[in-house]
Amino acid sequence: MHPDVYVPRGVELSAVARAQAAWLWSRRRGVVAGRSASALHGARWVDGRAPAELLYSYRRPPKAIRTWSDCFNDDEIQTLAGMRVTTPERTVLDVACRYQVSNAVAAIDALTRATDLKLVDVEHLAERYKGRRGIRRARIALDLVDAGAESPRETWLRLLLIRAGFPAPQTQIPVYDDHGQLVAVLDMGWENIKLAVEYEGDQHRTDRRQFNKDIGRLEALTDLNWIDVRVTAEDTEGGVIARVAAAWKRRVCSEGGISMCLPP
Fold first, then answer.
1. What b/e sequence results for 111-146 when a residue is b if at least 16 CB atoms lie within 10 Å of its CB, and e otherwise?
2. Could you tell me the sign of the dihedral formed by the alpha carbons of 54, 56, 57, 63, in that order?
3. N or C: more exposed end of the chain, with fewer CB within 10 A?
4. Which domains does the chain have, with CATH numbers?
C-alpha cells in the first residue's frame, strides 16, 4: 500500500484498514484524524476509497494519504487499537473546518449517531481555536447537525429542505395508531401538520418483502392523515422542492389553523 506497508492482493480495503495502514506508514508517529478517525470511532458511510487522513508533519505523503499539521492538546487525543486517534469532539471540529458544509454535516451526522458525543463539547473546543482557519464554516455546519440522519442521502435531503426555506424538519418521528401501536418511524417531517419526507434507497425497490411492507405502512399513514412524500435517487432537487411545497400548501392552506400558509 505504502512504503514498507503491505496487504495481501485482492483484499478490499475499508476506511479503517486504510487508517491503520497510514498510521503504520507514519512509523506510528501520526495521529489518525478527520474521516479516518470517524471510521475508527464507528461512524458508518465513510468512503473506503478515499485517502486516509493523519495529523502529521509531512508535506509529501503517498497518494492514498492526506496529512496536515495542526496544534492539539492531550485531551483531544485518545488511543484506539493501539493508535493515537483524535477524540470524537476533535474529529468533528477538524471535519467541520476542513470540508464543504454539506459534506461536513453528513460526516458529522454519522459520527454523532455512532458515539455519545455532545455538540456543546465541540462548541467549547471551537472556542479554544476561535482563530483557526475554517472556524466560521465549522460553526455553520455544527448548527445543521442532526444525529437522526440514517444515511448521507437523508442528510442531503434535510439540508435541501432547509436551504429551500422550510423550517428545519424533525427527524426519526414515531407514529402510533389509535391503539398505541407503532406504525412507522419517519425519516423527517413536520409532526404538527403531519407531513413527512422520506428517502427511499434501492432496497425499497429491489427487496420484495420490503416493498410489500412499505405498501402496508403507507396505507396506515394515510389512514392516520399523514402525507408522506417519498424521494429517490432519480428525483431532482427542483422536483423534490416542488413536491414538498405542493404538499405543504395542500396540508396547511386546505386545513387552515397555521399561520404560514404559503410554502417557503
1. bbbbbebeeeebbebbeebeeeebeebbeebbebbb
2. negative
3. C
4. 15-144 (no CATH), 152-255 (3.40.960.10)
